[in-house]
C-alpha cells in the first residue's frame, strides 16, 4: 500500500540498523525517550529495540493521553455520568480506566449511568441535537492532536445555540510534559546507577507535531541540551530518527530536527492553532498521572465559552486521588520502569483485568508490551 509499504521495508530497516551500529561509539551508552504512545506501540510492534545495538536503548515516555489522566478526573466523569439527565460521551479506551474504589466508566454504565462511546466530537453534537431533553457532556481528553476537534465542536455548539451540550475538558500539552520529565534534580536524571533514568534525546511526537510544528521544542532542546527528532510512526521513520539522534549525540549537538517532513512543518497547522486559541486558554495547574501537578500544562475553556464548560455548569471540583499503590504506571510514564518490571504485569494486570491506565489504552506502554509479547 502506497505510503505504508515503503516505510516497512525490512531490508532498508536492517541497513539503517547496520549504520546505527557502526556509528554508535563503542563503550558509549545512548538512551532515547520516545514521547508518544504511538511510537511506544511501534517500538513493541516492529521489534525496533531488537534491531538496535545493545548500547542504543529506548525508554517510553508519557505521551499516552489515557494513561496520564489522573484517577480524580475519571472519578469526576463517573460522578457526572451518574447525575440524572446527564449523558456522558466518551472515547472507548476511557471506559475501562480504573477509577478509585475499583470503579470505571464501564462499571458505572452497568450501574445505570448513560455513557455512550463515540468516535468523534461530532457524534456528541449529534446526540445533543437529537435528544434535547438530555444534558450531553463530551469527555474531552488528549494532547494537541485531538484539541482542535474539541475546539471546533465547541464553536459549532455555540453557532447552533445548543444549550444541552458541554465539554469536560482534560486536554493537555506536550512541551510541559517533556519539561517535567527532564526537569528533575541532576542526580535523579543522571544515569541508571542513581535509580533515575538518563535521557540523551527525544523522538518527538508525530501527530502532535503536525498541529504545533517543531518550533515549540527548540527552547526545550536548548535549555536541557537534549536533541529532539520529530518522527513518523512507521518502523523506517523510527529507525531513521534514532540514527539522526545518534549522529547529534556524536556531534555534540542538541538541535530540533524533523524526520517526518511529509507531515510536519516548522510552524504546524495554523488553522488548528487558531481554533484552539479562540476557545481555550492555559489552565493554571493540572494533575498528571505519573508526573504530578504541572503548572501551565493543560487547557480550559475561555470565559467567552463558560456556558459550554461542564466544569462550571456542574460545579466540578476535582479531588486528587492516589493511584493503586501496587501499580507502577507513574514510573512507567517517566521511563524509569519497563512494563515487565512491574510485579503485576501479566499476573493480576492484563488487558482483561487492567490495574492501571497503562494497560488499558492501546497507546499505553504496558498494553503495547503485552500485545507484542515483550516480557522483558
Ligand atoms: Fe500498572 Fe499494570 Fe502497568 Fe503494572 S503492568 S504498571 S499495574 S498498568
TrEMBL record:
Assigned keywords, A-Z: Iron, Metal-binding, Plasmid
Pfam families: HypD
Signal keyword on record: no
A biological process term (GO) from this entry: protein maturation
A GO molecular-function descriptor: carbon monoxide binding
Keyword Metal-binding among record annotations: yes
Gene3D superfamilies according to UniProt: 6.10.20.100, HypD, alpha/beta domain 2
Family from the record: Belongs to the HypD family.
PANTHER family reported for this sequence: HYDROGENASE MATURATION FACTOR HYPD, HYDROGENASE PROTEIN ASSEMBLY PROTEIN HYPD
Entries under NCBIfam families matching the protein: hypD
Name of this chain's protein: Hydrogenase maturation factor
Source taxonomy: Bacteria, Pseudomonadati, Pseudomonadota, Alphaproteobacteria, Acetobacterales
Amino acid at each position: 500500500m502506497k505510503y505504508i509499504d515503503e516505510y516497512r521495508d525490512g531490508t532498508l530497516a536492517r541497513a539503517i540498523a547496520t549504520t546505527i551500529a557502526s556509528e554508535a561509539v563503542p563503550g558509549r551508552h545512548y538512551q532515547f525517550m520516545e514521547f508518544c504512545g504511538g511510537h511506544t506501540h511501534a517500538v513493541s510492534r516492529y521489534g525496533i529495540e531488537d534491531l538496535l545495538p545493545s548500547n542504543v536503548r529506548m525508554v517510553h515516555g508519557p505521551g499516552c493521553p489515557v494513561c496520564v489522566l489522573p484517577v480524580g478526573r475519571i472519578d469526576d466523569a463517573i460522578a457526572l455520568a451518574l447525575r440524572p439527565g446527564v449523558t456522558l460521551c466518551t472515547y472507548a479506551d476511557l471506559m475501562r480506566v480504573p477509577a478509585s474504589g475499583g470503579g470505571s466508566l464501564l462499571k458505572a454504565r452497568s450501574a445505570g449511568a448513560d455513557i455512550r462511546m463515540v468516535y468523534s466530537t461530532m457524534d456528541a453534537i449529534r446526540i445533543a441535537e437529537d435528544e434535547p431533553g438530555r444534558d450531553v457532556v463530551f469527555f474531552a481528553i488528549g494532547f494537541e492532536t485531538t484539541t482542535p476537534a474539541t475546539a471546533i465542536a465547541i464553536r459549532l455548539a455555540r453557532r447552533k445555540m445548543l444549550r444541552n451540550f458541554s465539554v469536560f475538558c482534560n486536554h493537555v500539552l506536550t512541551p510541559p510534559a517533556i519539561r517535567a520529565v527532564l526537569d528533575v534534580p541532576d542526580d535523579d536524571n543522571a544515569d541508571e546507577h542513581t535509580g533515575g533514568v538518563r535521557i540523551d534525546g527525544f523522538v518527538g511526537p508525530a501527530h502532535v507535531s503536525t498541529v504545533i510544528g517543531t518550533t515549540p521544542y527548540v527552547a526545550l532542546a536548548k535549555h536541557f541540551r537534549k536533541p529532539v527528532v520529530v518522527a513518523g510512526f512507521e518502523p523506517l521513520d523510527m529507525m531513521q530518527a534514532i540514527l539522526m539522534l545518534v549522529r547529534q549525540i556524536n556531534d555534540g549537538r542538541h538541535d530540533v530536527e524533523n524526520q517526518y517532513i511529509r507531515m510536519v512543518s516548522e510552524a504546524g497547522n495554523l488553522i488548528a492553532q487558531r481554533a484552539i486559541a479562540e476557545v481555550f486558554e492555559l489552565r493554571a495547574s493540572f494533575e498528571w498521572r505519573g508526573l504530578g501537578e504541572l503548572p501551565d500544562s493543560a487547557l480550559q475553556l475561555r470565559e467567552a465559552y463558560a456556558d459550554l464548560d461542564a466544569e462550571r455548569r456542574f460545579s466540578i471540583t476535582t479531588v486528587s486521588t492516589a493511584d493503586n499503590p501496587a501499580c507502577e504506571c507513574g514510573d512507567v510514564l517517566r521511563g524509569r520502569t519497563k512494563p515487565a518490571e512491574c510485579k503485576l504485569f501479566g499476573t493480576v494486570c492484563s488487558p482483561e483485568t487492567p490495574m492501571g491506565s497503562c494497560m488499558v489504552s492501546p497507546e499505553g506502554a504496558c498494553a503495547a508490551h503485552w500485545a507484542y509479547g515483550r516480557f522483558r
